Amino acid sequence: MKMADLPGSHLLRRLPVSIWGLVVIVALVALFLPGFARIGNITNVLRVGAILALASYGQTIVLISGGIDFSIGSSVALCSVVTALAVQQLPLGLALTAGFASIIGVGAINGLLIAYLKLSPFLVTLGMLLLVHGFAAIVAGGLPVEVPDREGIHTLSGSDLLGVPYPVIIAGLAAGALYLLLERTTLGRSWFLIGSNLAAAAATGIRLRRNIFLAYVLAAVFVGVAGLILTSRVAAGEPNLYPTLPFETMAACAVGGIPLTGGRGSALNAVIGVIVIAVLNNAIVLLNFPAYAQLSLLGIIMVGAVIAQGMPSWTRPSRIRSL
Amino acid sequence: MDTTVADSVALRRPCAVRSRLRFGVLGQVRYTIGVATALIAAAAFAATFADFGTFENAANVLSLFGPLAVLSVGQMIVVLVRGFDLSVGAVFALATVITAEAMNTAGLVGLAAAPLVGIVFGLLNGVLVSYFRVQPVIATLGSLLLARGAALLAAPNGQAVILGGDAQMVLLNLQLANIAGVPVTAIFTLIVFLVVAFVLYATAFGRRLFMVGGDPRSAALVGVRVHAVTVAAYTLCGFCAGLTAILILMRTGMGLPTEGVGMEVQSLAGAVIGGSQLSGGYANPFGVFFAALFIQTTQSGLNFSGISPYAAEMVMGCSILLAGLLDRVSQRIFRTA
Amino acid sequence: MTSASNVGPDPRSSDAAVIATRQPQAATNEVLLEARAVVKEYGSTKALQGANLVLRAGRIHALMGENGAGKSTLVQILVGAAVPTSGVIAMQGRPVSFDGVSEALAAGVVPIYQQSSLFPNLTVLENLFAFETAASHGVAGHKSARRRRSAKQMLNRIGLAVLLDQPVASLSLGEKQLLEIARGLGRDCKLLVLDEPTAALSQADTNRLFAALRQLASAGVGILYISHKTNEIAQIADEITVLRDGVCVISGAPLKSTSMQTIVSAMVGHAFNVGEKNLPVVRAPVLALVGAALRIGDPEVSITVRASEILGIAGLAGSGAEEIGAMLAGALACSRGVLSVNGRPVGRSGDRATAVAAGIGYVPADRSVDGLFPGHDALRNASASVLDHLTKFGLLSRSAESIRLSAALTNVSLTPNQPRRLIDEFSGGNQQKVLLARNLAVADIKALVLVEPTRGVDVGARDIIHDRILMAAAEGLAVVLVSTDLEELTSLSHRVAIIRDRRLTTELPRLSSPAAVAGAMLGENQ
Amino acid sequence: MLCKALKYAALAAGALCLSLPAAQAADVTVGFSVPSLSTAFWTSAAYGVEKEAEKAGVKLVKVDAGNDNNVSQQIGQIQDLMQRHVNVLIIGAANDDALKPIAERAIASGIPVIGFSTPPNTDKLASYIGADHYDMGRLQAECMGKALGGKGKVAMMSFITGQIWADLRAKGFKETLAKEFPDIAIVAENRLATTRAESITVAEDWVQRFPDLAGIYTTVDDMAGGVVPALKAAKKSVVVTTSNLSPSTQKMVHDGDLPCSSIQKIVEQGRNALQQAVLAARKEPTAKAVLLPALMVTKDNIDTIDLSSVSAPADYRP
Question: Does B331 touch chain C (CB under 8 A)?
């Protein structure tokens, strides 16, 4: 069984060389930074990272199929508002499903406009970002819409199993699900082909419209889980719940080595990208940098990682030699 | 069988007038959307609110739409060369902070800091996108975060930097001043648009922007320095963000590090409603001028009605989706020759 | 795109005078440009290994070679689009190194590219003066009357009747190539470099081009003419250079004393016989397209193809031949007409998914546009159409994919046979084989439509593809071959359908000569 | 191209002034501009103003700048309200210095301005209604001191910068702690977090960085609403003090999760603001300043407070 035939091998082969550079940096931070390796800190980093990871899985699906999604920040906020309003009449379980359904609804609308009306994913999701946020803010209205604590809303995000917080477990399982979806289903494989060359995918008989629509809906499923965890963490309906989420997921995917032009990427890329960003953010807090520096540093890391990935491709002409 | 050149022309019938009509007029329809939406919005609000339809309110809207308009025309230039700039909001916030500090120390001449900050970030974006081949989303997202962090760091422990006495007076008078009823800020905005229109349509550099936007490979093959043109486009967009900082300073009288949140999305809406096509190659400053006017008219109209600002945000979202639809339709018109 | 405001005459734009009044810059036969021992390496691959070329004023020099032989690399070096790793380029005796296209232009070297280097969003006029705009600074007065007049002359010269203010997006493929040529010819130049200029031209346009080229040569301009079409080279060129694997196997031999056979075998490196192939026996009809019209108002076309039959479809660019091929493959929705396989109509027209389900394979015209998946390995490129059959318990099984598709790839003799290598790293010929393997891997395939299967493919791969097409037909597939390579068409097809202005005009029997097909394609006596 | 542009401009300007200037409305129209209606404080304030407007039979137009950072947006909105010829303006400034020019311009054009809680930084206001924010900070310090028994480490979430009321409250808290409880040390101060989600993240980080953290000061009860459940879930016993009393905060005080909350009668302030606005609109004398005292609310005295004057009911939508 040559190295090339190991199940995960093609995934490892496809990781750009710069990833290992980043993993080394993270390892150094883990060893030398005081207070980093403490169990409490690690779980905290993972808990915040888990939410970003789940949302990044959704962004990964959309990016691989050649699209982009700016609307996830607003859809998680809508989920929290819908849940908070629904819980006043319905039991918590049903309210959370209503919240989850609202995210799937946003994903479906994105899918419809992009797949069937063939509009540009960039414009559709930017438009939806504003539309959904405005709608959530109007519906939420003034007083923060509380989710009463008696319902045990906090269990989803707060409590843990044998010390490992639920969100981290969910993010781990979701990573496996994403791997299966991308690598072991015809739908997942069609996303790679569509993202790589849309016209060629059409010529091979792949059902373009249906598959692109499903890409946005299934991406919304992962974002939905992230939305539920966020809602349980905040236990209230907040129109401005996590406005920078879309940008952070794009940063995570970029640092993880997923090209924004589509056609390539995997669950592993997303996970690595999220871990790197979560750890470096935490390092900033532990090093007591002013919180503002976190913004600038994140920007520099992201662009640096993408440039590093760009490096090897300079030598290998990626353009198809059709002459 | 060596047919001479002259008689071969007779064989081939000249193109019908129909196709001239198709491309003469239809080619321009995308640019009139901005004007149409502005007129519709103005008429609708004027009908519902008596005070909206006055000349005085027209001046009010004109005095307010400047920042969005200047940002949108900057965004249009970058969209023309197949890119876009997410950092314009954060860059002009940083520019207001640095300019406020510069003016407090060096007086009015400090105003020059605003365009400088814009140009620096424009250059950074341009170099990242062209020479380092970083996708525009990531490059400008990176500089968005960088600029936002820098703005908060530059302002003493994140506080707003208040303009000193005389500097503020000068800017404040400019903000209120108007020539024959037209606010100075609107004239400043119109001048920016006329300069951009001149650069785009009357200079070789402007033509090269269209060439790089139309087909970068062809541009390279005919000898255009594509990288240099791309860097220049992003620098111009940064410059516009710097100019916007001046307009905001005139309005708020202070450098506020947290200003401009969400302005990058609005400026993109302005560019797209103004007829720009995300796949590059198309731009018309006057379409964008009226698209920005449409957005401001809508916001002012909704402020008149007192319903929540989020309704304006939803209208903005709808107009971006609408622009996306028109972008698709006009692409289809062009393809069927 | 609105044309620019009228800002007065442009002082600086070079005046493209009418060709006839140009004075010869160099005495005929004087060496214009010489390339000595030019080497060019891209990373590990050596594109050029010591090529040399001598171009003289007033002479038309042909450059031929298979794909990947280094032709376009040499051209890019000559026109300043690339810098050689080593070797010397001398212009009228003086060594030069062009840093960029504008320097080559200034030195009088004018390129006319095959992939059109035009701007769809700009007007015809703006495209005609793209070179000037790229180089000039300050105010570009291209609205000036003088420019419009010289632009009209450029268009008349090549007989292209389009409006100056019409966006190029609205031109047809042929008109775009003519505009490209008009722009090149309009330049004041010492050396003109044409890269496959007639790929999309009608015979009439080609004749007009040749007339203009002869006129330029007689005026002392040197011409380098690159083409795949051996019949054109024989008609226009004075001398020929053949490149193989980056080395000049024939350099500057006069065409009069060199036979086609020696040229082709020099290109291929072994004897090449255009023998006649034995074709399988034709059986019951399989694929039928009845009363089909692409757009409302187009004439109706009906075609039926039998099992084991190879139907050739010939037509000039823009005649509708490629569209009819696409309709037969179910890739293009037709406004009227029904496509059926073994009598059963295929569902929604234009939806390849139903066509693949019905068993119709399709190798599209341009592999880099709608054929290949860059960034993925050959295996994934080949398995694209059969994914649904590679699942175990609902999950895509990687082992099933590699077993079945590796067999398919060896079947089309992919060289080197490494299915895991990225498709980008394979030559054009091998990429075309992967596309063929993708279709042949479909279990119950009944028909196969190929459009220009061997365009830009080296002669070796071309033979293998032809053999595989014959084997597929022998196995009972109904094959449709749309091609402008007349030798391929005549030697492989049972019958050749001629398409002109979207109408099925005539049908030529087996083994008609390429010349007969060419004449039929052109229609009247031309 | 240039001639085409001028044609566009003339066309649009003409359309804008289609109808004739409207007749002066007979009754009083009150313009109410706030930084953000999605916070508990401004919602309760809006509730007070709205209820009083209904009682006084005046027309009320509310505008909301979207969030506390949108200073230029709020200035634009006030300019629009001036065009709408409101008779009086009640302004809660997103940033007091930034709003000074526009407020003075409104006053100069004959529209009196009432400052509400965070007034524009000008002395030409017709009236100022607010609470003693320094005192509210002092009360939080006393409550924290008692709850911690006079010693321990405390961290402060003192809201974003540029908000006078937040700075005053923080100053009151710091100075009282220094004076009355010198052994309590302030180990960290955050000037970025404002919403519930942000304050949870900050609280979780602090609990990691300072394992022995004893108390957290939160400027408004939105923050406490996020921090208290998060700390409970993380099984950390940290004393949290806050100000204002939205419905959820009332419950937390009842359940003993919050030892106390220094509050101001927001709805009451809203009513006073509207009353002063009507007086100013009718050019009658107005009170220069109406300062409502801060109150300390603890588990035992919560039932005696008239809650209707403190916070809007849960289902109220501005």
Answer: no
